[in-house]
């Protein structure tokens, strides 16, 4: 599936007499929209309209604005889903969005106002991500400079996707989208999980975000938690679990 997935504006599919909500999926760092392919296939088989948003990975505020523009374009209720850093993005994008009815976090950050992804990761032991990173300096069109972060190709399988086949992990490494280091340092200004029902897939074999950090954030948010023995790439390795949790959220808001 391409990065620029077209937005679904409406759905003809119904379940138990009502239109199904649109599922908007937001990828995180070191991934791209195709990382949701297995989840998308399962949701579409069950009749859900799905949009895989392109996440710029520049900053939580600007990325949230980009996602919000897509969410505002969708007619009808939305289940907004974020993986990894995408959790920081959906926590801001959903703030004040009347059609977002539920949030689903997948091996993700649920930051409180004033917290950053970097700070939350470092608060708990277990992440081996720093040693796997490959920083690349960049200069923007406006002359601004910064650092993009990739995961080294030789470290990607172990670090990010240990429970997917090696050839799949190699393709994921080759197509990974880098994140601006500044995005991981920027603090949250809102936390939509305080006002919206949330679900959380906690990945217990995650080497990027420590499981202790995930459990802490999920408990603080009062999220409905599903724990799975999976790597950070849980959408690729266990799409059945991820799709199932998203469907739980969709059914909940359908009443």
Automatic annotation (TrEMBL):
Top-level taxon of origin: Bacteria
Q: Which residues form the AB hydrolase-1 domain?
A: 23-244
One Gene Ontology MF term:
catalytic activity
Q: Which Gene3D superfamilies match?
A: alpha/beta hydrolase
Q: What is this protein called?
A: Pimeloyl-ACP methyl ester carboxylesterase
């Amino acid at each position: 599936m391409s990065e620029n997935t077209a937005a679904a504006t409406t759905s003809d599919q119904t379940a138990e007499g009502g239109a199904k909500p649109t599922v908007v999926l937001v990828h995180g760092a070191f991934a791209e929209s195709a990382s949701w392919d297995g989840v998308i296939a399962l949701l579409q088989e069950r009749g859900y309209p799905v949009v895989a948003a392109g996440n710029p990975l520049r900053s939580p505020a600007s990325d949230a604005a980009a996602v919000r523009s897509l969410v505002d374009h969708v007619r009808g209720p939305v289940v907004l889903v974020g993986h990894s850093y995408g959790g920081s993005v959906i926590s801001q994008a959903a703030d004040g969005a009347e059609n977002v009815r539920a949030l689903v976090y997948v091996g993700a950050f649920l930051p409180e106002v004033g917290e950053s992804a970097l700070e939350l990761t470092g608060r708990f032991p277990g992440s081996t991500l720093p040693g796997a990173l490959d920083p690349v300096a960049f200069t923007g069109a406006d002359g601004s400079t910064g650092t993009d972060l990739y995961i080294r190709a030789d470290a990607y399988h172990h670090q990010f996707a240990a429970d997917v086949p090696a050839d799949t992990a190699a393709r994921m490494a080759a197509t990974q989208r880098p994140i601006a280091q500044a995005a991981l340092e920027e603090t949250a200004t809102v936390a939509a999980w305080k006002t919206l029902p949330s679900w959380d897939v906690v990945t217990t074999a995650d080497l990027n975000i420590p499981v202790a950090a995930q459990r802490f954030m999920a408990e603080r948010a009062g999220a409905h938690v599903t724990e799975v023995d999976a790597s950070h790439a849980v959408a690729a390795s266990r799409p059945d679990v991820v799709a199932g949790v998203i469907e739980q959220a969709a059914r909940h808001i359908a009443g």
